[in-house]
Amino acid sequence: MDVSPPAALKHLGQNFLIDPNIIRKIITLAELSPTDRVLEIGPGRGILTEALCRSADHVTAIEIDPRLYAYLSEQRSQFQNLTLILGDAMAYPVEQLPIGTVVVANLPYYLSTPLLFRLLEQAHRIPRLVLMLQNEVADRLVAKPGRSAYGILSVMAQYSADITKAFKVSPQCFRPRPDVDSAVVLLRVKDRMEQTREARDQFATFVRAAFAHRRKTLVNSLKDQGYEQKHVELALTTLHFSASIRAETLSLDDFITLSRHIHRA
Ligand code: SAM
Helix (H) and strand (E) counts for the chain? Predict the structure, then answer.
């Protein structure tokens, strides 16, 4: 039976895709095979979910809105390979995702950055992610040193994945229309399995401390965050960096080298 979908709620970031061409482009980018398992966050009215179910072996979709969950349960009941979960994606146990799960989602924009950090913590389970985000967040993900968009998100995401901003999406492709442009990004997770959880946590702490005071030098920013000044200065000298360098000019490789050196000290 066809029932009309529930009205969109702004506070849950409900901007539903209506353009089948964008769905096709997302599916192509995800390179799904009939054996793939997919996690979708925020299936909404199910336009992307349906295409995912047709392309993959199994789809798990987490929706926070009980009205949409009920609507989808009824409207997509023909898909035997769909598991719908009513809940908050931020509380979903990503650490229990089967290894090899591909993430494909048009993310709720109010939550896109924390969700991305959460997913990247378990990046070794996820070979690739295809995500629709605000264009501005997509720019931060691919930003290079020296650009104003370059920051913690850029370094941490590029540490875990090779990232491509695949295409922009105009507000006209959604109902209701969002206030901002959107973009679809592909993150191909790098193989960092050789690293321990502790090493990855240390790196994240270092990057956060380095960017904590953007206008200060790296030495001062790290010192304010509890790092020993003499260790930082010694590392900079040994590795031939200027003593007045700032975080925003360091490349990903610079961050990795410095972090290793300072933590060893
Ligand atoms: N995938 C659909 C599409 O492309 O048309 C809907 C995308 S819409 C931008 C975001 C969806 O995420 C909405 O259905 C919203 O209810 C859901 N959502 C918002 N916050 C959520 C959360 N914390 N956990 C799970 N789903 C959430």
Answer: 10, 9
Ligand 1 centroid distance, CA of 42 (Å): 3
List residues near ligand 1 (CB under 6 A): 12-17, 41-45, 47-48, 62-65, 68, 88-90, 106, 108, 111
Domains of the chain and any CATH numbers: 10-189 (3.40.50.150), 197-264 (1.10.8.100)
Distances (CA, A) of 214 to 150, 246, 262: 11, 7, 20
Gap from CA of 111 to ligand 1 centroid (Å): 10
Site to probe by mutation for ligand 1, drawn from 50, 65, 177, 181 as the one with most ligand atoms within 8 Å of Cβ, is: 65
Measured from the Cα of 43, ligand 1's closest atom is 1
pLDDT in tens, 98-143: 999 999 999 999 999 999 999 998 999 999 999 999 999 999 999 9
Lowest mean pLDDT among 69-78, 107-116, 164-173: 69-78
Ligand 1, atom 6: closest residue by C-alpha = 44
108 alpha carbon – ligand 1 mean position (Å) = 5
Give buried/exposed letters for 204-232 (b at 16+ CB in 10 A, else e).
bebbebbbebeeebbbbbbbeeebeeebb
The predicted structure's pLDDT at residue 246: 96
Residue 112 · residue 124 · CB < 8 Å = no
Distance (Å) from CA 163 to ligand 1 centroid: 23
What pLDDT score was predicted for residue 191?
Answer: 84
- Read off the pTM: 0.95
Average pLDDT in the chain: 95
